[in-house]
Amino acid sequence: MDDASGKTYYACVIKDATACCSQGIEFKLRKGLSYPEDQSKITVKGTFTTYKEKKMTYSCLKNAVLER
After folding, report:
1. Least confident of 1-5, 38-42, 45-49, 61-65
2. Is 21 domain-assigned?
3. Under a CB-based contact definition with an 8 Å cutoff, are residues 61 and 47 in contact?
4. What is the number of other CB atoms lying within 10 angstroms of the CB of residue 64?
5. Containing domain of residue 42, as a range?
6. Is 46 inside a domain boundary?
7. What is the pLDDT of residue 21?
8. Within a domain: residue 61?
9. Domains in the chain: how many in total?
10. Model pLDDT for residues 10-40, shown as the tens digit of each residue
């Protein structure tokens, strides 16, 4: 949760093949689905979109579903 805005953001972390580096991507689940527990290994599929918030552009997988 972002203390300044009060919003909760969900993201998954993707490690590279050598596990030395990682990248994260935010996702918003399709309505009616439950978010996984922290540290769960998941696969997320969704529609890649971008949005602006406070003059910054962010990427997000919208309408996402989980494969566990």
Report:
1. 1-5
2. yes
3. yes
4. 20
5. 11-67
6. yes
7. 86
8. yes
9. 1
10. 999 888 888 788 889 999 999 999 999 988 8
Q: Is residue 6 part of a domain?
A: no
Residue 68 predicted with pLDDT over 80: no
Distance CA 34, CA 58 (A): 23
Longest CA pairwise span in the chain (Å)? 36
| Rounded distance between C-alpha atoms, residue 40 and residue 36, angstroms | 6
Long-range contacts of 38-45 (CB under 8 A, 24+ apart): 40/68, 41/68, 42/12, 42/66, 42/67, 42/68, 43/67, 43/68, 44/12
Report residue 33 as tokens.
């689905």
Residue 45 has pLDDT above 80, yes or no: yes
Nearest to 63 by CA among 50, 36, 45: 45
Separation between Cα atoms, residue 25 and residue 9, nearest integer Å: 10
